[in-house]
Write a structure and sequence with these properties.
With 299 residues, the protein is an alpha+beta fold. It is 30% helix and 27% strand. The termini are far apart. The protein contains 8 helices and 17 strands. It has a 4-stranded mixed beta sheet with strand order 2-7-6-5, with no helix packed on it. Strands 14-15-17-16 form a 4-stranded antiparallel beta sheet.
């Protein structure tokens, strides 16, 4: 009798699992082209243009059936659009698009009113930190070490080992290289941001300065280098032997040129041939060979 009961229960369980599987498989499909965008203040917005797929196995294309709330494009700040799709069986799926309504200065947007997503893996060597991905103000790596040529600048242990090798190899090739700025605390970045606003204004700051909490330097994985100690951080670095070395060889040590000249729209920072970021040799090689930024890699 026990065997019969167990067998009966097993059949019920299998039928139930199959039913659940079929039910889940029949859910409508709703996908968006991205999960976050920035648009200019007072601009028009096409809600449906960000829908990539809206369909159902039985109902076919359901793009026109997608509903969504509207946002205020005349108000600065981060807002959310909730997309909703229901099929003929009343099965519903949802997707969310975060829209940052921002003030642009040429192609660079002001991050001041953007509500950034806090990264949950700040110790990951490949973590993305930018104008929309932030670090907690209390975050500080616990393995910082002074760099080979400047005991006032610090990198995380693995990044520092890689930088030491890069530095020594550059020197052996007769290339001048100086460490200018590596790890920066949240407080330091706050000072630099506010000082830049006072000295140069918001348009300049949006291009060359990170908003507090959104600087790669706080990770302890980024370092600014120059071929001279006089007027060190200018685009002239790109035209030097050091610039050529970083362009062609930095990835061999696990570093990438984080803000290339042809990707300013993607990174939303001006060209910085002096700023290199450690991501590990494997990913650095992949990004270098594909001419890809971290933003493109994660999207």
């Amino acid at each position: 009798m026990k065997k019969i009961i167990l067998c009966f229960l097993s059949i019920i369980f299998l039928v139930s699992c199959q039913h659940d599987k079929e039910t889940n498989a029949s859910l409508p499909v709703l996908t968006l082209k991205t999960n976050r965008i920035q648009i200019p203040l007072d601009s028009t917005f096409s809600y449906s243009s960000y829908i990539l797929t809206a369909s159902d196995k039985n109902d076919g294309d359901l793009t026109t059936q997608v509903t969504f709330n509207e946002i205020n494009t005349h108000q600065l700040g981060s807002q959310t659009i909730n997309y909703r799709l229901k099929n003929s069986h009343n099965q519903t799926v949802y997707k969310t698009l975060t829209v940052d309504v921002v003030k642009y200065y040429n192609e660079f947007f002001d991050p001041s009113n953007v509500l950034a997503d806090y990264v949950d893996n700040p110790d990951d060597y490949q973590v993305l930190v930018n104008k929309t991905h932030a670090l907690n103000e209390n975050y500080k790596p616990d393995d910082l070490e002074s760099v080979v040529d400047n005991d006032q600048q610090f990198l995380r242990h693995e990044a520092n080992d890689a930088y030491t090798q890069l530095y020594n190899d550059a020197k052996e090739k007769g290339i001048e290289i100086y460490s200018i700025s590596a790890y920066r605390s949240y407080e330091k970045q706050t000072f630099l941001w506010q000082n830049s606003l006072k000295q140069f204004g918001i348009a300049h700051s949006c291009q060359y300065n990170a908003y507090p909490g959104r600087s790669e330097h706080q990770l302890g994985l980024a370092i600014d280098v120059s071929n001279t100690l006089n007027d060190p951080l200018t685009e002239e670095v790109a035209n030097s032997e050091l610039g050529n070395f970083l362009e062609n060889d930095a990835h061999k040590y696990g570093f990438v040129l984080r803000y290339p000249s042809n990707k300013t729209i993607v990174t939303n920072y001006a060209y910085e041939p002096w700023h290199i970021r450690y991501v590990g040799k494997e990913l650095a090689k992949e990004l270098h060979n594909a001419h890809m930024t971290l933003e493109e890699y994660y999207n």
